[in-house]
From TrEMBL:
This is Berberine/berberine-like domain-containing protein. Gene3D superfamilies: 3.30.465.10. It comes from Didymosphaeria variabile. GO terms for molecular function: flavin adenine dinucleotide binding; oxidoreductase activity. It holds the Pfam family BBE. It comes from the Eukaryota. Residues 5-39 form the Berberine/berberine-like domain.
Length: 65
């Protein structure tokens, strides 16, 4: 039987990603991220803390100052 799979409905360009994906939990999740991964080695978009980085024209991940 073919049941298919769930297609994730998020998008990387959602301007309201903090509220839409994490709601009132965002600040707590960000503080946990900063505590356990202070160098942001585990990067993902959209994840708490990704707004501190941007991808440059060469595809490199750079910290936003």
């Amino acid at each position: 039987m073919d049941t298919g799979s769930y297609m994730n409905e998020d998008t990387f360009t959602n301007p309201n990603w903090k509220e839409d994906y994490f709601g009132p939990n965002y600040d707590k999740l960000l503080s946990l991220k900063q505590k356990y991964d202070p160098d942001f080695l585990l990067y993902g978009k959209p994840n708490p803390g990704h707004e501190f980085f941007e991808v440059d024209g060469d595809g490199r991940l750079c910290r936003v100052e």
